[in-house]
Amino acid sequence: MSQQTPQAIRGTQDIFGADAEAFGFVVETFERVRKLYRFRRVEMPVFEKTTVFSRSLGETTDVVSKEMYSFEDRGGESLTLRPEFTAGIARAYLTDGWQQYAPLKVATHGPLFRYERPQKGRYRQFHQIDAEIIGAGEPQADVELLVMADQLLKELGVSDGVTLQLNTLGDGASRDAWRAALIEYFRAHAADLSEDSQDRLERNPLRILDSKDPRDKVFTADAPKIDDFLNDEAQDFFAKVTSGLKAAGVDYVRAPALVRGLDYYRHTAFEFVTDRLGAQGTVLGGGRYDGLMEALGGSATPAVGWAAGIERLAMLVGDKGEGRCEVTVVVEDDRVLSDGIGAVAGLRRAAISAELIATGSPRKRFDKAAKSSTRAILALGWSETGTTTRLRNVDGDTNAIESALAGFAWSGAQG
Fold first, then answer.
1. Theoretical Cys-Cys bridge with 67: which of 94, 114, 297, 384, CB 3.0 to 4.6 Å?
2. What is the pLDDT of residues 326-348, one digit of tens each?
3. What residues does each domain of the chain span?
């Protein structure tokens, strides 16, 4: 009876070759940049109690109602594979004593899980990079995160064609006044709105503003604007964010339709968007969420953060290749195999990438190396006086190779 080869789960992916190199380049660049900005590395659990996400994301959001992977463990407790990082980091801040480090700058990356329709650059298991500043209520924290994100995209080489869209949601009072005006406005057009927007009208009217449904777009253009409801404090906060971006040399465009539906979001909201990934053009997004800690049962704590999909950034990065080998060591006579193993080990300890070819027909090993993408070939042979070496340069640094092998104890005299 034949066995069927197991297939990958729909909406997941195996990452290999050039795709894996681009993925790794995103993570390595993020790690380097977060160290420049002095963000502390954290590692978060892959699953949490379901209440961590239902309380932070809202029971009625699509993520909680449709997209979370939740299950009961053997003890009957409901657990959820994390759909995002912020809620878990907020939970840890409240439960692990991280308040003592406030203002706390943290960063992380890893897999997340959402049961959503797979599309270009989106998967049910996907990966994100994430940066948060907790316990800092000043607009300078927003500026630092935005400047950090801008530098990250530049160092990834993907900033061309990427635009920072920026908006303010105001403080709590400004947002509440705006929300009430939106409800009143959209009620008058409720019968003509899409089904989703009719459902959101009373509980989440801000989400109607970013609806892509043509039935809603007819009305969103004339909907009340947040600027008409900003008090002096909210205006001053946003002005300090924009002046900080100007001082740092970061360009942006005002995007009044850019919103966050959850009530704990305040002030700054932003997205870095591109037209190179189809309709879903956001590559990095975030905002200030000053009300989240209270939603999780903690005291009022200001916070701001952003996240970006690694797969989507890797698609913009493009082909990074797998990197050329600096030197290939070819053992042309099996009697010098030990020298070949030792030479490769010495080169790698000197931070020179190296491969060893010591199998197959001895006469064809050099040809195999020559057909590879190596930068240099070190051929090892045998004569009556011992090991012979022959270094062929393709386009590498033979001086570095010779320096790394200086003093190496070959089996015999070198020819």
1. 114
2. 999 999 999 999 999 999 999 99
3. 17-171+231-317, 327-405
Mean pLDDT, the chain, as a whole number?
A: 90
Please give the CATH architecture assigned to the domain spanning 327-405: 3-Layer(aba) Sandwich (3.40)
Give the span between the Cα atoms of 99 and 302, in whole angstroms: 12
Alpha helices by DSSP H, listed for 350-407, are 362-370, 398-405
139-159: pLDDT as tens digits: 999 999 999 999 999 999 999
Q: How far apart are CA 329 and CA 347, in angstroms?
A: 10
Question: 76: left (phi > 0), else alpha (psi -120 to 50), else beta?
Answer: left
Q: Do domains 17-171+231-317 and 327-405 have the same CATH topology?
A: no
Task: Tell me which residue of 96, 141, 90 sits closest to 294, measured CA to CA.
Answer: 90
pTM for the whole structure: 0.87
Distance, CA of 308 to CA of 130 (rounded, Å): 7
Q: What is the DSSP string of 212-261?
A: --HHHHHHHTTSPPGGGG--HHHHHHHHHHHHHHHHHT---EE-TT----
pLDDT in tens, 93-114: 999 999 999 999 999 999 999 8
**Top CATH class, 17-171+231-317:** alpha beta
